[in-house]
Amino acid sequence: MNEYDSDRIKNALDAEPTDDPKKADIIIVNTCAIREKADQKAFSSLGKYKHLKAKDPSKIIGISGCVAQLYGEALLKKMPHIDFVLGPRAIPKLSKIISEIEREKKRTVETSYDIEELFEVEPYHQKGKVTAFVSVQQGCNKRCTYCIVPRVRGDEVNRPLDDILRETANLVNKGVKEITFIGQTVNSWKENGYKFGDLIRAAGEIDDLERIRFTTSYPRDITKRMIDAMKDVPQVCHHLHLPVQSGSNRVLSKMKRTYTREWYIDTISRLKDAIPDITISTDIIIGFPGESDNDFEETMSLMREIEFESSYSFKFSPRPGTLAADFAKEDAVDPHKASARLTRLQEYQKDITARKNESRIGQIEEVLVEGESRNDSEFLSGRTDHNRILNFKGTKDLIGKSVKVKVTEGLLNSLRGELVV
Ligand code: 5AD
Fold it and tell me: 93 partner at 20 to 30 Å CA-CA among 33, 207, 333, 335?
């Protein structure tokens, strides 16, 4: 989501992007507020640009994204070297804001939720890139008690179907082969009587689009209509990221996740009945206020029962204004205990992921080649249908193509293989 917004920011400015802050006329730090750590990172990276502003006061420095929305005006006071504060909904206003700053030398805060042109700026697309994101929704209507997203991104607004399809088709015309639809609860998307399954079916009709992914799905909004579309549309990749957050019904209820452990497990079975080789990844929060040893054991037992392909797990972080931050005032889990639980869960996941990766040795996977491998330019890198990174030896002309690769090695975060010719 943030990567997508950063690319929209690049386009909103119609300027040449540079990675060198010394050369830049405008520096924007796009931020995430989901956990406290992310929020602190924003402040430390802005601090780094203080001396650049001191040397060259004509440089424009701004903060955008969820931290900008959360603290607003206070950021201008806290950091005298920044010129503007821009909320995530306000990206379409960026170019106007920059012109005003240049003209009037006035510092600005734009954090309104009522921006009509919400989807107007499409993201910058790097020439030759074969994968791209398309936003289908902004904001969130769920009210998970730990989550700051509804506060910083506002209520759910769904993008019209035609707009989504037009942006997708444009990207495909530029050579994109794989689209990932993104939204906070992407499968809650609905518009004018259409539901998410209809969006997938419509995207499946776009010529030359080879792969469709979407993230992040909300368990409660997995419907038969959606599963049927995933099954029927051949371009839909057989991987789903489905955050469960906890395996304890008591904790799920305090999180207001609106489903039970049993319901989640049943949903996975329905998905596997329809698409037997589907892989599932998840997000877990450890140490939610009041999480007992027993609750944590329930989460561990869910991990064993489902055996997720991979999982992202986080220690609970109290976010300002959320209900769970209030629960934490009375019921916080001892941080050492939470850390020990997190380590145990992550170690368990490592074993499962390693085992699953190893079990793919000898199989032939279809890989969409995205580019050279980051660590070794002799190797190409791409993803399997199941969203695993697969590196193999090959020449650059294969970039952008779908090829068959035989898996020879299963590492923790990736696979290695050999091109099948
Ligand atoms: N503390 C810890 N983790 C959180 N997440 C969201 N809010 C919090 C929080 N307050 C995690 C959830 C979500 C992922 C994007 O971040 O697991 O799925």
Answer: 33
Say whether pLDDT at 115 is over 80: no
Neighbours of 129 (CB within 10 A): 17
Alpha helices per DSSP H over 258-315? 261-274, 293-306
Q: How confident is the model over 362-416, as pLDDT tens digits?
A: 999 999 999 999 888 899 999 999 999 999 999 999 999 999 999 999 998 999 9
At 367, give phi and psi (nearest 5°): -120, 130
Query: Which residues does a 6 A CB cutoff place in the pocket of ligand 1?
Result: 34-35, 146-147, 243, 245, 283, 285, 314, 316-317, 319
> What SS3 state is found at 43?
helix
**Half-sphere exposure at residue 96, Cβ-oriented, CA atoms within 13 angstroms:** 8
The dihedral through the CA atoms of 319, 322, 324, 330 has a sign that is positive
The residue assigned the tokens 């074993």 is 351
52 conformational bin, left if phi > 0, alpha if psi -120 to 50, beta if neither: alpha
Q: Tens digit of pLDDT for each residue in 26-51?
A: 999 999 999 998 888 888 989 999 99
Q: What is the CATH number of domain 125-237?
A: 3.30.750.210
Helix (H, G, I), strand (E, B) or coil at 290: coil
Burial class of residue 282 in the structure, from the number of CB atoms within 10 Å of its CB (0-12 exposed, 13-18 middle, 19+ buried):
buried
Q: Whose CA is nearest to atom 16 of ligand 1?
A: 34
Per-residue pLDDT at 122: 86
- Token pair listed for 167: 């942006």
Q: What is the pLDDT of residue 374?
A: 86
Choose which residue among 216, 283, 315, 341 to substitute to test ligand 1 binding: the one with the highest number of ligand atoms within 8 A of its C-beta: 283
User: Domain residue spans in the chain?
Assistant: 2-110, 125-237, 364-419
Superfamily of domain 364-419 in the CATH hierarchy: Nucleic acid-binding proteins (2.40.50.140)
Locate tokens 């997995």: which residue?
222
Give the separation between CA 278 and CA 260, rounded to whole angstroms.
22
With 0-12 / 13-18 / 19 or more C-beta atoms within 10 angstroms meaning exposed / middle / buried, residue 402 is middle
